[in-house]
Write a structure and sequence with these properties.
single chain; 2 domains; Spore Coat Polysaccharide Biosynthesis Protein SpsA, Chain A; alpha/beta; 8-stranded mixed beta sheet
């Protein structure tokens, strides 16, 4: 073991004891050249997970138990503060990992200022499901081979940072109560000059059952509560996540092409087209041909939720 580099795997969990145990079993099976520890933050105070510390003592597991439900961002910060590794690896509780997962993350940190994006793959039991395959191809994998990866590919479901860099940018913003704390962190990493790299061999398998309604509920939550915060803090994000299309056309104050794009988008996102897309999605035999349909369903939900949020702002230009 190379004790000079030690990694800390930080896993927040909330009422997923079975999935968490699978994740820990895969970490216990690591063929790692590096000493590592696992810090689990139990965000369900009334659930006792203490037996896991004994069961997985061989991988140095440690439990952190908040006195109340604190949410993902705070939970991850608590886990990092209770850890000792030079490299922090963030992992979700519904993941299992390949035997060389730790090695792949640590080896990807070839210098300072790197944000490493792991490779999230379909779990074998869902590998044939179109939605699972759609999720698998998102993020860095979609941009494989690109000379520079954008911040939005960074995911705390499978990603790592050097502790010094994470602390330098202020860790996770604990004011986030919903999804999006990882994108906010990624933008601050970008401002600090961090380079985002894809570690293809740092494979984790997502065992969360593919559920379109669950995905769209999260997308609506993201559009309603998170995009307004991100758009205000990081205005350059609006275009890259297509949120600018939620604003009304402004002929004469923007390019004609953009105005027409906004009008076309608003027309395409009318309820009859959405209902048709939901019907088409049922044709799972179409496989990868459903990917544009899923893109559309996501866009409909988060732009609609974002428009609703804009209407509630006194300074909103949305009618």
């Amino acid at each position: 073991m190379k004790d000079s580099i030690k990694a800390s795997v930080v896993i927040p969990t909330y009422r997923r004891a079975g999935l968490l145990r699978n994740a820990l079993e895969s970490l216990a099976a690591q063929q790692s050249d590096y000493a590592f520890e696992v810090v689990v933050v139990n965000d369900a105070p009334d659930e006792d997970l203490s037996a896991l510390e004994t069961e997985f003592s061989d991988i140095g597991i440690r439990l952190v138990n908040p006195t109340r439900n604190v949410g993902r961002g705070i939970a991850r910060n608590m886990g990092v503060r209770d850890s000792s590794g030079e490299i922090i690896i963030f992992l979700d509780d519904d993941m299992t990992v390949a035997p060389d997962f730790i090695n792949a993350h640590v080896n990807a940190h070839t210098g300072p200022g790197l944000a490493v994006v792991g490779n999230i793959a379909c779990a074998p039991e869902y590998a044939s499901h179109p939605l699972a395959r759609y999720i698998e191809r998102q993020g860095a994998k979609k941009r494989k081979g690109a000379s520079r990866l954008p911040p939005k590919v960074f995911r705390t479901g499978n990603g790592s940072l050097q502790r010094a860099l994470f602390e330098k940018v202020g860790m996770f913003d604990e004011s986030f109560s919903t999804y999006g704390e990882d994108l906010d962190l990624a933008m601050r990493l970008e401002y600090e000059g961090a380079k985002f790299v894809f570690a293809e061999d740092a494979v984790s398998y997502n065992h969360h059952p593919p559920d379109l309604d669950d995905m769209l509920e999260k997308v609506r939550e993201w559009g309603r509560y998170t995009i307004p915060i991100l758009a205000k803090r990081h205005p350059e994000l609006e275009k890259s996540i297509h949120a600018h299309l939620a604003h009304p056309a402004r002929f004469g104050r923007e390019s004609p092409a953009l105005s027409l794009h906004k009008i076309a988008t608003r027309f395409a996102l009318l309820p009859p087209f959405y209902r048709l897309a939901r019907l088409v999605y049922r044709c799972t035999f179409l496989g990868r041909l459903l990917f544009p349909v899923i893109d559309y369903l996501r866009l409909y939900n988060y732009l609609g939720a974002y428009r609703e949020a804009l209407k509630e702002r006194p300074d909103s230009p949305v009618p």
